[in-house]
Amino acid sequence: MKAELFHQYAHSFEGLTLANLDRLATYVSPDIHFRDPFNDVHQWAHMRLVFVDMFERTQSNRFTTLEVYPNMETASACVYWRFETSFAKLGALDILGTSRIQADAQGRISEHLDFWDPSPLYRRLPVFGSALGWIQSKLAIRT
Questions:
Q1: CA-to-CA separations, 52 to 1, 20, 57, 65, 82, in angstroms, rounded
Q2: Which of 1, 19, 76, 127 is deepest in the core (most CB within 10 A)?
Q3: What is the rounded distance in angstroms from the CA atom of residue 103 to the CA atom of residue 9?
């Protein structure tokens, strides 16, 4: 297995649209495990549904791969990325995140775990956003 797999997979998200979403299937195992702050699914068909739902709910989506750190001893990589998007009612969001990517013995991505802070999205939700802002004000240090 080559580190290039992780770079190619990470960069395949750049320019990703609903129309070309299936290009990810060339990199992933059919039984991939995908997790983000809202979803935890197994199988490419279910991962695909997560992205279809995202593209249907958002506009102006743009993924940018910032850094890729392969670890060939564990057949895994960490990817640092930015996702810019917009919701019709909630406005634009700029999200920085990290993904842990695992490859299987056949050289396909078998696990993709996303780690990012959803609180900027939550803060824009009526009622919940106010409550989260209040909690954050109580837990934050005072300078």
A1: 30, 11, 9, 20, 19
A2: 76
A3: 11
Kindly state whether residue 92 falls inside one of the protein's structural domains.
yes
Inside any domain, residue 103: yes
Overall number of domains in the chain: 1
The answer to whether residue 141 is domain-embedded is: no
Q: Residue 131: CB partners within 8 Å, gap ≥ 6?
A: none
Whole-angstrom distance, CA of residue 59 vs CA of residue 85: 6
Do residues 59 and 86 lie in contact, with contact meaning Cβ atoms separated by under 8 Å? yes
Instruction: Give dist(CA 73, CA 86) in Å, integer.
Output: 38
pLDDT tens across the length of the chain (143 residues): 689 999 999 999 999 999 999 999 999 999 999 999 999 999 999 999 999 999 999 999 999 999 999 999 999 999 999 999 998 888 899 999 999 999 999 999 999 999 998 888 777 777 767 777 787 777 788 88
What's the CA gap between 102 and 11, in Å, rounded? 16
Rounded to two decimals, the pTM is: 0.88
The CA angle 87-93-94, to the nearest 5 degrees, is 150
